[in-house]
Amino acid sequence: MNQFFLVPGAEGWNVISRPPQNAGWEVRAFPTLDEAAQILSPDDDVVLALPISAVLAQRMRLPSVEGSELSEMVRIQFEKALPFSTEEVTSDFEVIEQANGECVISAVAVQNQRLTELAAPLLNRKVIPRAVTVYAAQRVATHAEKGRALFIYSESGALVSAISENGKLSFARTIDGAAAAPLELELPRLTMTAELQGINSSFQNVLLDEQCFGLRDRVEQALAAPTKIIAIETPPASTGLNLLPQAWREQRARQTRREQWKRRVAIAAVVYGAIVAFALIQLVYLKFRVRQLDRQVERDAPRTVFVRAAANNWKALAPAIDPHFYPIEILLHLFDSLPSADVRITAYSQSARQISVEGEASKAALAYQFVDKVKKHPDLQNFTFDMQSPRILPNDHAQFRLEGRPR
């Protein structure tokens, strides 16, 4: 975000800005605010400084109170001084000093309609300033942070004489006529008016803008004090005065939220696009891998057929070549599993797919014991055994049939 200071010049407006990737500040002059607004965008950080002619600056001496009470007292004082209601103006103040239960206030106000008319070129381009202050307050805060100072400079075709106390604007007047003004009369009148308002006119600094250098001798003669030549501030110092109307604050907040949502939507669109692109790449890769695997399966098909045929042959030969499938071995393990002499094997048959054992037990419980021991025998784990419920004979013996299938 670029930072801009819009300040009134001797004729027209000056834009103080720092170009991108540049450590220094530059000053550009424009004949009108409308032309200066052309270089700005709604995303820029803009501080608008008002000329003295657009504001009412007043020095107040009030009881020393805190917070909202002091603000209310300043509002009441403005009600007495302004020809319109306080709802029609935006005001702000800074404390110059506090002593002996009193505080000296630097207060400024601007009529909202006047401000809207002045800033119309900015508002038409949807450029809402971050802050609205007074250029005289910025200048004195930059060059006269301590003590009392008189600042004389040219602004909008007139001379401005501003008095500061401890870096705060306490008194300001415009002198018509600019360079042709009778300073020998105007400056003594200025100091006398300041004295009547309780401002000590023994200035520690007299500051003269470089564009008014030709007035230096006349100023020194009128005030009987040396002057110091200063240049335009790059950038101006910040002040505690902010005349940004509440409606502008809300509009700027809405505009900021709207820009934030635009950025979020743009980021979401980029992320979504990246996800879709990744998914497409993944899909293309998977299709490529499927074609690769299909070709590999097709290439390996003859060997796969041979391996399957060999596996089937070995499976068919297993009863003949694997001792675990020898009938004599299986019978031996079956006899080892008999729980007692009351259980007898009466028939045994075996094929490549199945073995069948028939028997008789004096009790059904012994038949179940036999089946359980067969299932747990370590040398018969190549088979899965299953037995239906035994048939009870007239002599109460249990006749059973056990079938086993290779795993």
Walk me through this protein's architecture:
The chain is of the alpha+beta class and 407 residues long. It folds into 2 domains: 3-244, ATPase, nucleotide binding domain (Nucleotidyltransferase, domain 5); 324-406, General secretion pathway protein M, EpsM (Gyrase A, domain 2, 2-Layer Sandwich), CATH 3.30.1360.100. Helices cover 40% and strands 29% of the residues. It has 10 helices and 18 strands. The protein has helices at 33-37, 67-81, 112-118, 120-124, 135-143, 183-196, 216-223, 246-321, 327-336, 364-376, and strands spanning 3-8, 13-17, 26-30, 45-50, 56-63, 89-99, 102-111, 131-134, 148-155, 158-165, 168-175, 205-209, 228-230, 343-350, 355-361, 383-387, 391-392, 398-406. The two termini are 75 Å apart. The relative contact order is 0.08. The model has no long low-confidence stretch (mean pLDDT 88).
